[in-house]
Amino acid sequence: MLSMKVIFVFGLALIFVSADIVGGITELSGDDLKEAEVTLNNSLSKLASGDGPNYKLGKIIKATRQIVAGNKYVYDVELIEGSKTKVCNVVIVSQPWLENGIEVTFNCPDGQVVKRHSA
Ligand SMILES: *[C@@H]1O[C@H](CO)[C@@H](O)[C@H](O)[C@H]1NC(C)=O
């Protein structure tokens, strides 16, 4: 009876550990945060020189990365549009091996915009 419990608890722990490896969400700092900033700036400038929106990065409030099929970055950021600054949640799913494999979703107070661009 005890061993059943041990196996159950151990199995549960294993599920959590493997979930962390496969789908873990990491809050970024240091070099990882810098890399996430480069990724975001790259998307913002590609979109600004394409069909928009035309944003510049104000500052990153928080950023996370999740390794999926590719990378998924989630940012809380201040975005600058002309003379206005707004706080948005931005999601970048990066699958650079696909055509137009970078998908950028802006969740801003004035609504949601989804864009794709090449790597
Ligand atoms: C990202 O863009 C912002 C605004 O243009 C700039 O201040 C910042 O230095 C850039 N960051 C990187 C890592 O290039």
UniProtKB/TrEMBL annotation:
Domain (Cystatin): residue spans on this chain: 20-109
GO molecular function: cysteine-type endopeptidase inhibitor activity
Keyword Signal: yes
Signal peptide: 1-19
Record Gene3D superfamilies: 3.10.450.10
Domain of life: Eukaryota
Keywords: Signal
Keyword Chloroplast applies: no
Membrane-spanning residues: none
Family to which the UniProt record says this protein belongs: Belongs to the cystatin family.
PANTHER family: CYSTATIN-LIKE PROTEIN-RELATED (PTHR12319:SF2), CYSTATIN-RELATED (PTHR12319)
Designated name of the protein: Cystatin domain-containing protein
Gene name tied to this protein: Dmoj\GI10662
